[in-house]
Amino acid sequence: MLMASSVRLFESTSNWLCTQGSGKIVASGISLGGWITNLHSSIYASMDEYRPIFAGAALDHLFTDTIYRNMTSVEARENANVLKDVLNFEPAFETGNPSTVFPLLARYDQYIHYGRQKGIYHENQVSTLDKGHITGTMDMRALRKHLINGLGIGDG
């Protein structure tokens, strides 16, 4: 419900910005916000650009193959195919407009596994930090550069 309502809020905000004569509209978010950014791209693809940070489209992987697995019930882990059916939106992402998505991934992220999530994106559009999830989140200079590059203002 949180992701669905957040995606809808992204769309409503984008529509309102368009009616106000806004210039380029870029969606971004870190971690859960990055998943929401990618899901919006998958469903609506209505923004000019997407800049997800530390996220992908295989959300099921987070709950089956990372440390978050410990928070998943035994029943859910034993039925990983159900988690995939409900949480994995890679096919929808691919049919959206992935050419407008410019992710920032952390090579040593213990939650959002770099190798697993990177494959959904166009390789030449992926930016990579040689950090983990938390240390990457703390790298304000890299995050600022990633967002400024998306907005096309300043030198990042």
**Largest beta-sheet details:** 2 strands, parallel
Radius of gyration: 16 Å
Indicate the overall shape. Answer: globular
Q: Mean pLDDT score, rounded?
A: 94
Biggest sheet: strand arrangement: 1-2
Query: What fraction strand?
Result: 5-15%
Structural class: mainly alpha
| Helix content bin | 40-55%
SS element count, helices: 9
Would you identify the regions where 5 or more consecutive residues have pLDDT less than 50? none
Order of secondary-structure elements: HEHEHHHHEHEHH
Distance separating the two termini:
35 Å
Number of strands: 4
What does this protein look like?
The structure is a single chain. With 156 residues, this protein is mainly α. The protein contains nine helices and four strands. It has helices spanning 2-19, 32-43, 59-65, 74-78, 80-87, 90-95, 114-118, 133-137, 140-151; strands at residues 26-30, 49-53, 104-106, 127-129. A two-stranded parallel ribbon has the order 1-2. It has a two-stranded parallel ribbon with strand order 3-4. α1 crosses α2 (32-43) and α3 runs antiparallel to α5. The longest helix has 18 residues, at 2-19. The chain is globular and about 50 Å long. The chain starts with a helix and ends in a 5-residue tail after the last helix. The model has no long low-confidence stretch (mean pLDDT 94).
Summarize the structure.
With 156 residues, this protein is mostly helical. It has helices at residues 2-19, 32-43, 59-65, 74-78, 80-87, 90-95, 114-118, 133-137, 140-151, and strands at residues 26-30, 49-53, 104-106, 127-129. Strand 3, helix 7 and strand 4 form a beta-alpha-beta unit.
